[in-house]
Design goal:
Blueprint (H helix, E strand, L loop, with lengths): L1 E8 L2 E8 L2 E5 L4 E2 L10 H6 L5 E4 H15 L3 H5 L5 E4 L2 H7 L3 E4 L2 E5 L6 E4 L1 H11 L3 E3 L11 H20 L6 E6 L5 H14 L3 E4 L6
Parallel strand pairs: 4-5, 5-6, 6-10, 10-11, 11-12
Antiparallel strand pairs: 1-2, 2-3, 7-8, 8-9
Helix pairs in contact: 2-5, 5-6, 6-7
Length: 215
Amino acid sequence: MNFKILTSDGTARRGVIQTSRGEINTPSFMSVGTHGTVKAMSPDELKALGAEIILGNTYHLYLRPGLDVILELGGLHKFMNWDRPILTDSGGFQVFSLSAFRKIEKNGVHFRSHIDGSLHFIGPLEAMKIQGILGSDIAMVFDECIPYPATHEYVAKSVDLTTEWAKQCKAARNDGQALFGIVQGGMFKDLRRKSTEELLDIDFDGYAVGGVKRR
């Protein structure tokens, strides 16, 4: 993956992300195909509208239809009949927002499926393995999505955990797949700066801004 700035105006900029499956002009509207399809839209219709990239969701695809089905069909691109870039999120947000039961540990999170209540575990290594099987062009690190509001003490510990998981994701990254870090830190500027600096030190292909809630 390669990113190039084409033009700028003050703090605004226009660029292009170059991948092996095509270019993504930025800023970009990314269509959401959570379960491997954009609702009420066919791949041809999406292309006709100018969609350059689609987002898939690790958590949902892992639970249903499941990795065995997607692997047998040759990966997420073939499963979706989509030959342009795909970004998969790590599933971290869904683990924390959809599960009625979850237990955070140093190595990841135990959670129950929102579909049938079955028990599962996803950590940074599992998230990278799942995204490798999906075969997305851009993968996201596994991070802790904190509740809002949260205390400075809680968020500080969460940032440390997210940084540690980011290091593990970087070490387990999949060949041919770009990997983005995710800045956390809640609503605390000092923790957001800390998270940003730590992720920059790990050196990812790109960076996302996570966990922002407008008041």
